[in-house]
Structures are given as C-alpha cells and as structure tokens.
Amino acid sequence: MMKGKVKAFSYLRTSSAANSGFGKDSDVRQREAISAHAAREGIEIVGEFYDAAVSGADLIEERPGFAALLERIDANGVRTILIEDPSRFARSMQASILGEMLLKARGVTVLCANGEPLFGGDEEDDMREAMRRIAMVFSELEKKRLTRKLKGARDRKSVELGRRVEGRKPVPAEVVSEAKRLYRANPKTGKRRTLRAISGELERLGHVAPSGKPYNHNSVRQMLQGAGVYKPA
C-alpha cells in the first residue's frame, strides 16, 4: 500500500471506434476503476491521457495520447501512471517489452487499478531481456518479409506495364542527417526530442515529405532506425 500523497497521470485506451465516443462506456469504466484506486491509495491524478480507437499492438510512443503523456513526463517530476489493467498498456509482446524499456529508462512506475505494478521486479529482468530480444528478432524478420513482398509486387507491375516501377524514393541524406542531429540527447538533461517534435523541427527547416506534408512520426523513426541511432528507451 502506497503511503503519502503521490501524483500520477491516468492513461486510458480503447482499441476500436466501436468502443469509444458517445454512449460507449469503455472509457467511463476505465476512468472509474482508476479513480477508485487513486482514492483508496491517496494518489492525486494530475492529468488524463486517452487514446481512442488505437490498437494495443502499436508502440506506445506512436500513439497520440501516450506520446503526449511522454512529453508531459519529460517536462515535470511526475513518474507514476495509472491504468485499468495490463491490456490498456499493450496487447502485443513487442509493444509491451519496448514500452517497458522506454518507461523504465525514465524512472516511470505503471500501476494497475487493482494496485499491482505493471512491471515485475529484478527477478524478472533476465526473462524480460530475453523476450525483448525475441521481439526485436521477429520485428526484423517481419521487416525483411515485407521488403521482399513489396519488391515482388513492383517486379510484377513492371512486367505488366513494360517499364520499371520503383518503390518509394529514399529520404534525402541531408534530411536524415538533420533528423539525427535533432535526435541527439541534450548534453545537460540527457533527454531527446520526441519523434513528433523532430517532425515539427524538420518542417520548420523546410524539410517535408514528397507530398509536401510534414514527415510523420513513423517516417522519422524509420530514418533514425536506418541510420542506426534510434533507441526505443
């Protein structure tokens, strides 16, 4: 049982549009469970973040609500998050493991509405590390599988049209270089810009996607992954 006044953020997530909006009670149920736990434990909820119709398989930093939550965490001293249950945090091993790494690096504790901590203690570290590595291996395999699939589709289309159909044009080297610079940790605070913040800075500097729109956060992450500098935590 937690003693003293602790400040925390609450996080809610619904996985489909059918479970969110007027007349739906998923968010209401989550909010009530979290509020009841906070009242029992003397926890002060200082902000709520909600991802409506967002898959639990998405990485936490790619969800609009959780990305905003991470920015708030980086901006103040609150290091506790309340959720209804583990499924609200993640529904895939990759999202769960990488999300845990990211939050632990920030010193963040996640508590479920039943009072149980989401992350285990030191005795689970070896197992979680093994699971993290497995998740990363499968992520790389899926990336390679998708690359081969897209290449096969382009080859078939090229034969059909009688001309070479190329894939998406690579991001200019100067854009990748700028993204790497913006991603570097602040030497004083050790903190990095979020993917969305980097996208905004790139747009301000005149670097946008071929469509003329700002690079989205997934594109920024892919740039940094391709450059070998991206770190989930």
What does this structure look like?
Pfam families: Resolvase. It comes from Palleronia marisminoris. GO terms for molecular function: DNA binding; DNA strand exchange activity. With 233 residues, the protein is α/β, with parallel strands linked by helices. The protein folds into two domains: 114 residues, 3-Layer(aba) Sandwich (Rossmann fold), CATH 3.40.50; 65 residues. The chain contains eight helices and four strands, in the order E-H-E-H-E-H-H-E-H-H-H-H. The chain has a four-stranded parallel beta sheet. Helix 1 links the parallel strand 1 and strand 2. The longest helix has 37 residues. The radius of gyration is 20 Å and the shape is globular. 22% of the residues are buried. The mean pLDDT is 85.
Q: Topology of this protein?
A:
Blueprint: E1 6-13, H1 26-41, E2 43-51, H2 64-75, E3 80-83, H3 86-89, H4 93-105, E4 109-112, H5 125-161, H6 173-183, H7 195-204, H8 217-226
Parallel strand pairs: 1-2, 1-3, 3-4
GO molecular function: DNA binding; DNA strand exchange activity
Organism: Palleronia marisminoris
Domain Resolvase/invertase-type recombinase catalytic: 7-161
Supply the key terms:
DNA binding, single chain, alpha/beta, 233 residues, Rossmann fold, 8 helices, four-stranded parallel β-sheet
Helical element count?
8
Please state how the strands of the largest beta sheet are arranged side by side. 2-1-3-4
Q: What number of domains? A: 2
* CATH fold-level assignment of the largest domain: Rossmann fold
The CATH architecture of the largest domain: 3-Layer(aba) Sandwich
Q: What is the helix content?
A: 40-55%
Order of helices and strands: EHEHEHHEHHHH
CATH homologous superfamily caption of the largest domain = Resolvase, N-terminal catalytic domain
Cα-based radius of gyration, to the nearest Å: 20 Å
Mean pLDDT: 85
Q: How many beta strands in the DSSP annotation?
A: 4
The CATH class of the largest domain turns out to be Alpha Beta
**Most strands sheet:** 4 strands, parallel
Q: Structural class per helix/strand content?
A: alpha/beta
Unreliable sequence segments: none
Q: Report the principal-axis shape.
A: globular
Fraction of residues in β-strands: 5-15%
How far from one another are the termini?
Answer: 29 Å
